[in-house]
Amino acid sequence: MRRHPQAAADALAALQQQHLRRARRTVLGYGEGAGSTRPRWGDAPLLNFCGNDYLGLARDPRLTAALTEAARHWGVGSGASHLVTGHTREHQLLEEELAAFTGRESALLFSTGYMANVGVVSALCGRGERLLQDRLNHASLIDGARLSGGRLLRYRHNDVADAARLLAPDEGAPQAGSAVLIATDGVFSMDGDVAPVAALAALAQQHQAWLLVDDAHGLGVLGAHGGGLLEQAGLTGQQVPLLVGTLGKALGTFGAFVAGERDLIDYILQRARSYIYTTALPPAVAAATRAALKLVRDEPWRRQRLAALVTRFRAAAALEGLALADSQTPIQPVFVGDAARALAASLALQQAGYWVTAIRAPTVPAGTERLRVTLSAVHDEAQVDGLVAALAEALRTLAPA
Ligand SMILES: Cc1ncc(COP(=O)(O)O)c(C=O)c1O
Questions:
Q1: What's the CATH code of the domain at 376?
Q2: Do residues 216 and 361 both lie within one domain?
Q3: Which of 45, 95, 206, 312, CA to CA, is 20 to 30 A from 120?
Q4: Using a 6 Å cutoff on CB, does residue 140 contact ligand 1?
């Protein structure tokens, strides 16, 4: 966009016309009860069916207590980056607990998942080196590749044969196919389906490439102990050397980490610019996350309940003929056709008392606009049934695509 007094206004008007202009809603509070899934931003609280608080921990009083107590001891800000004076005992203990929880030697905290992916990918991939990523990977993995100056090749979504094709050496240049890194979302954030991690691990091993799995939406949710997609798939740290997890979703707090073998994690600590050149998380957030990790381990009922709600939602939605994705996770997108319809459906749901955001391009490919429904362990059966009925009614009243 060139500098011109009208330029921003014109660009905004164009986005508006294409139904692609985004706006925020300010949450004014929550309905009664710590487990409330009813944020208020207008007159009445809405039932939230689009957050990432899968286990219902974000407003759990035990996390609030841990945060408050730690803030009394440590204060609010960490005051510096980890490599200066910002790395406290709370951070250190959390890293050790995350390493143990994920069955890895070592873990390194980042301030956000976005920064973890950008930092890890750009630390491991040098200028001109090749790296492979799923076409539907999260923006932060793609941005890490761009920042690295490496050559990014994107394989068709969840298509291991396509990834293998990109790695196959050609006859004239036997090394031409090699890559340093293969990266994939574990659970895809907008689709809810899971990556074929065992096959990707075998491919990466065969080509001596690092495999990075970003399990932002699987950690805490999948696996008998909440260890995520890799626990569910029974894959070791040997098979998947780099596991990225985020703390702002199922764990209900904020931040992220990468876990793996000790030297590899230490190398990332030396190299990841989004780790080195930023202020460490507040120690109280690390303390709250330690409390969350304990609940993820000690309260498996949350995962079991969530899985039951997913089954219930899918069965009811199928009866109503809704267009669902092939997802067994709490991310249950409902495809609606285009951006205008997605916005209209979201508005109709809002009028019926539900908050389900319309997801449009460029977050998802144009033509695959959707309502991204997500479920949480603190929803109940009646709420899920009510949502499905409201969805069916909203889609019935929409103009045809
Ligand atoms: C797959 C995936 N990775 C990374 C992130 C970024 O995590 P954070 O919100 O902690 O920056 C997200 C979503 O926010 C995500 O969906």
A1: 3.90.1150.10
A2: no
A3: 206
A4: yes
312-371: per-residue pLDDT in tens?
999 999 999 999 999 999 999 999 988 899 999 999 999 999 999 999 988 898 889 999
Strand-pair partners of 214: 185, 244
Total domains in the chain come to 2
- Catalytic, out of 87, 138, 217, 379: 217
Calpha distance 395→385 (Å, rounded): 16
Q: CA 133, CA 145: separation in Å to the nearest integer?
A: 9
Q: What is the pLDDT of residues 244-273, one digit of tens each?
A: 999 999 999 999 999 999 999 999 999 999
| DSSP line for 271-335 | H-HHHHTSBPPPHHHHHHHHHHHHHHHH-THHHHHHHHHHHHHHHHHHHTT--B-S--SSEEEEE
Domain with 324 in it: 25-55+300-396
Residue among 148, 249, 274, 376 flagged as catalytic: 249
> Do residues 124 and 210 both lie within one domain?
yes
Assess whether 217 carries a catalytic annotation. yes
294 is a catalytic site residue: no
Count of Cβ atoms closer than 10 Å to residue 77 Cβ: 13
